[in-house]
What does this fold into?
Amino acid sequence: MTDIFGIDLGTTFSAIAHIDDFGQPVVVNNPNGLPTTPSAVFFEPESGHIVVGQEAKNTAKVAADRVVTLIKAYMGETHPLEFDGQQHTPESISGLILRSLAEYAEDGTGTKVERVVITVPAYFGVREREATRQAGVIAGLEVIGIVTEPVAAALAYGVTFRDERKTVLIYDLGGGTFDTTILRISPAALDVVAIDGNRTLGGAQWDDRLAGHLNDRFMAETGCDEDPMLDEYFAQELYEQVEKVKISLSQKERTTLALKYGNHRAKLEVTRGEFEELTSGLIQQTKDIVDRTLASAREKVPDLTIDEVLLVGGSAQMPAVGAMLRAHYGWQARLSDPNLSVAKGAALYAALSAAERAAFDPDATPVARHTLPAGAGPQAAPRRITNVLPKGLGIQFVDTSGPQPEDYIGFLAHKNDELPLRETITAYTFAADQTQVQIQVFEQGGEVESRRPADNREITPTGGAVITGLPALPADSPIHITVTIDAEGLAGIEAVEPVSGKRLTLTVSVSVLQADEVEAAKQLVRALVLES
It folds into this structure.
């Protein structure tokens, strides 16, 4: 049994898995006997204890000022939180969730959880991926790998493929995020062709629309003249009922729920058709993203056809998803273990990474491509995994061709470029007698690349990185800039001034939190009393 665990750090639910003594990926049940744990954190008043999981979720509306949910949507962003005088970030909150998963996995397996692989949505950029790695460090874990959720799911679904060659589209609709990935699978390789997604589109949006609709119906049918959703206890009960209704309507054509507020009571019937009409616009948004992914893939592979579609994520089980894929594309999607496939795939990836670590000098440069079995058992042939860049990456330059100097973004790497990659360009100093040069790296901010800095997001520390101590350079002196992005989507930059040999290297410094802040958060999380 490997001592490296795979973690699906989800927006609404998380899970941890490992490879058992029979070589199979197994999800470890939490203390409630369930394979998934709500990604919710409750800061108990007075006691100072932290509760992670179902009990925290159960108080999300009642104690909204002390419960954190959907924190994954803020990974890699400046989003400060404060509880009882202590400052928290999305990374430290995620660290608490990861620590909880690790602790109950240790109890369940008898194995110390120290090294992990953590999954991220395919469209997470370098900043979000680094934030996820930092969350693991804050939890006291060694993060040996970051793997995208679709690749992990593909491993769980298709690790037994042997001689087949096929192109697979993965439709991943989770609780708070949505992404699509197109993979080409062969006996030798699992290659990502194209990815796309939306970090704020997921099952929570379906819940919001249904909850709002049911609240309106309740008010209309009972004559209630004040909005009961302003009452946190009613809101908590309504959202708990909405979750059950959504699950029920995946199995039945209609269901009922009972609501009460003060002296007002109502029994409401909801049909699947009613629910699907309310949320048709959300389904359309996922279709638009599928269309974009197909278009991107066909730019690289013009004759590309989809042989199989895999559904991942709890919300992908809604019948409207399969119906849309059949109606618009003629696809009969495959649905199997959508809630746990990502965690199981992460465990497979973790085990394979362990084999690599044993095979290579641990102090050597990390290998660019991961290798893994094409099928279970000792006869398996090696398989290579390649990934693609989720968003374009560029550097801010100055355009001096017009009447006034104008800043612009020059893209060195583009969305869906194959990883790992290394790109070098020569830029030139702007003014005479420069003794320092500022390097600012930006990530693509919209669906298409834009030269305007305001349309993109800076991923270097605020104000960029600076090469200092240069001799007084004349204008138009060359500076060689190299951007590298590894197989897991983590980036670094190097800039060299060839005359003086002055060199600036930034390795994975494309994050909100700096090293001292990560260490402080780690100590804070370690000191908190955690309950599941």
Remarks:
- The chain is about 30% helix and 30% strand.
